[in-house]
Amino acid sequence: MTIGDRTPKVGPMQPDITAIKEKFLHIFGPDSGGGPVGKKVRVIRAPGRVNLIGEHTDYNDGFVFPMAIEPEVRLVCRARGDGMVRLGSTVYPHELVEFSLQKKIERGSPSWGNYSRGVAAQLIAGGIPLVGMDALVANTLPVGGGLSSSAAVEVATGLGLLTLAGGKLDTTRLALLCQKAEHEYAGVPCGIMDQTIVASGRAEHAMLLDCRDSSKTFVKLNPQELRVVIVNSMVRHELSGGEYAQRRHQCGEGVAVFRETDPHVKALRDVNLEQVQAAKQRLSDLVFRRCRHVVGENQRTVEAAKTLAAQRYERVGDLMVQSHESLRDDYEVSCPELDYLVDESMKVKGVYGARMTGGGFGGCIVALVQPRAVDALTQHLHKNYTAKFGLQPNVFVTTATAGASVVE
Ligand code: GLA
Known about the structure:
It contains 11 helices and 13 strands. Mean pLDDT is 94; it is low at 1-10. Strand 4 (84-89) and strand 5 form a beta hairpin. The protein is an alpha+beta fold. The chain has a 6-stranded mixed sheet with strand order 5-4-6-3-1-13, sandwiched between helices. The protein has a 4-stranded antiparallel sheet with strand order 10-11-9-12. It has a 3-stranded antiparallel sheet with strand order 2-7-8, covered by helices on one side. The longest helix has 25 residues, at 285-309. The chain has helices at 17-28, 114-125, 149-164, 171-186, 193-200, 243-261, 273-278, 285-309, 313-329, 336-345, 374-389; strands spanning 42-51, 63-64, 66-80, 84-89, 97-100, 132-139, 205-210, 215-220, 227-232, 351-357, 364-369, 394-398, 405-406. Bound molecules: alpha-D-galactopyranose (GLA). Alpha-D-galactopyranose (GLA) is lined by residues 55-56, 58-59, 190-191, 193-194, 358-359. Alpha-D-galactopyranose binds at residues 55-56, 58-59, 190-191, 193-194, 358-359.
């Protein structure tokens, strides 16, 4: 949280860990069952993420530019000796997820447990020895808010299971296992952005991630000059409902057409805008526009990382707005609420740029602003958005935080 910033924060950024530990003991008792394993209660944190630019490029082998944020997931956990996993959640207080590491782990209900079931299954499939776990998940990330609460739950579960078993895993590999868990257990064919930034973020930095080879370039955000503001539209974002998978499929259709003339094209990453224009007649209008978005977005993302490092904030802001327009018109993943928030943000003096962030169809926008513009932006959006849509937006400032870690 930015010190000296008078913007009201809606809700705490970190869960109250003393209260969560008490709740953990209340649910699971003073001693986890199943034999002589450590009694120590461990605390893991995994942040959410916001993507500054580079949307719907990760599953096209392209570039993304996210940072880890202050709202987070905390997992309070303790080992069990009988190979059972039991999970509670502060978001779903009356439900307990239970499964055994010694049997085939199936998807099941309650469905929020599928992220953790999936991660445990992937760790086992990766040959990593695990012990059972009692765990309580606490969350200050809005569920369905497009700030990667699911990736944070996955990475926290993975790190919790590894910590209790005394194991370690490279964060890039952990992210890949969590992505696979999301594909197979949550049914969302996501890219690699969310899990990577949640696992490997760096405090005070945004991360330019090359999703083809997982290479990472960190760019420092200067807190004297910049604030990152997130505005939750309060329209719930839902990725499992088909649209996301459809976009992936349409990108694949584009790749197939480019491959007819150039077999070296493996993904839209390998195509430039001239090639997209040249192929216009051979692509349907829809696939043409999808490809134009992805290819243009890759260029914008690489340029944004460079210009941010050079502190050319106006240019970064322009690129963010172009990104939003392309997501709205070519990729068609925005919605009226997000469009309105971006348009209204851009009317406020001192706002460099704004755009929808994450998968789309609701969720959040992100704005890059001068520190002194934060109050005016907050007030402007509260007043106008509420009047137009009858919803209170959640506006908050966040610094870039480190990726997931073991706290205790
Ligand atoms: C979701 C997915 C990511 C990415 C974004 C869009 O957040 O989980 O992998 O594709 O949408 O950029």
